[in-house]
Design goal:
Elements (H helix, E strand, L loop, with lengths): L3 E5 L4 E2 L2 E2 L1 H13 L4 E3 L12 H15 L4 E5 L5 H14 L3 E5 L8 H14 L4 E5 L1 H4 L5 H10 L3 E6 L4 H11 L4 E4 L5 H6 L4 E4 L6 H12 L3 H18 L6 H9 L16 H13 L5
Parallel strand pairs: 1-4, 1-10, 4-5, 5-6, 6-7, 7-8, 8-9, 9-10
Antiparallel strand pairs: 2-3
Length: 292
């Protein structure tokens, strides 16, 4: 089972290149602070602007630094099935525990195309696959019936990161796929509601800067301490809102920069935050006592 607080980790850049030392330090930051798993090369990791060599290197570094200490779910999706297979086979070969597979973006495949895409990737490797549904970025929704068919036909498709924002759809996924299929929230703001309908955890942006609190929210819910979980949920809410004041991962990278954890650099076409938004983010970090 994939559960708990799983961080969609940023890819630190310095002088236009991947900052390998900063990445290692961030990985150890999560190991020390109760994070259950790490997703390198996801949306927050700016996978769309990494070269093939960089993409593979980030996964290799994550495995080298974290293997045996924390679960590694490598982001290896692509909008070309052959590329996704290539990246997933590499992740499997170097020791990733699982793979996160985003729906192909821009192509807008039919449900039949989505099924055949994910099935082809699943058949190419032995490691578990977690689907990633984020229609706002990909332009396509993976329907619950398609997910259920994949879960039935491909034994290594074991869960989904759901970022549709549609709790009714997530409930249908649980209904069709059963409790053995892991439902992970793809939105920090919806972690608690998703847990309440049978979710097992979250793949989190906020965990980049507040790993202990995101992990604690899930832990308290699992223990049945709903009131405490609600308290953490509402404590996190203003910070989570600030982290999405501009397109992710701009704000979370800016926050990490303010906290001195890595450079705030993003890669074009992502750009540095507008000054007025940066000040709103700084205010939220101060109110959360992450900055003085």
């Amino acid at each position: 089972m994939f559960k708990g607080s799983i961080v969609a980790i940023v890819t630190p850049f310095k002088n236009g290149k991947v900052d390998e030392q900063a990445l290692r330090e961030l990985i150890n930051f999560h190991i020390k602070n109760g994070t259950s798993g790490i997703v390198p090369c996801g949306t927050t990791g700016e996978s769309a602007t990494l070269s093939f060599a960089e993409h593979q290197r980030v996964i290799e570094i994550t495995v080298e630094e974290a293997k045996g200490k924390i679960t590694i779910i490598a982001g290896t999706g692509a909008n070309a099935t052959d590329e996704a297979i290539h990246l997933t086979q590499h992740a499997s070969r170097v020791g990733a525990d699982a793979s996160l597979q985003v729906a192909p973006y821009y192509n807008r495949p039919t449900q039949k195309g989505l099924y055949e895409h994910f099935k082809a990737i699943a058949e190419s490797v032995d490691i578990p696959l977690i689907l990633y549904n984020i229609p706002s970025r990909t332009g396509v929704n993976i329907e619950p019936e398609t997910i259920a068919r994949l879960a039935h036909d491909c034994k290594n498709i074991v869960g989904i990161k759901e970022a549709s924002g549609n709790l009714e759809q997530m409930s249908r996924i649980k209904l069709l796929c059963g409790n053995a299929f892991d439902l992970l929230s793809g939105d920090d703001a919806l972690t608690l509601p998703v847990l309440s309908i049978g979710g097992t955890g979250v793949i989190s942006v906020a965990a980049n800067i507040v790993p202990k609190d995101v992990a604690l929210l899930v832990h308290e819910f699992e223990k049945g301490n709903n009131k405490k979980a609600q308290e953490i949920h509402y404590k996190l809410a203003p910070l989570v809102k600030a982290l999405f004041i501009e397109t992710n991962p701009g704000p979370v990278k800016a926050a990490l920069g303010m906290m001195g954890l890595c450079e705030p650099d993003v890669r074009l076409p992502m750009s540095s935050m507008l000054e007025e938004n940066k000040e709103k983010l700084r205010k939220a970090l101060k109110e959360y006592k992450l900055l003085k």
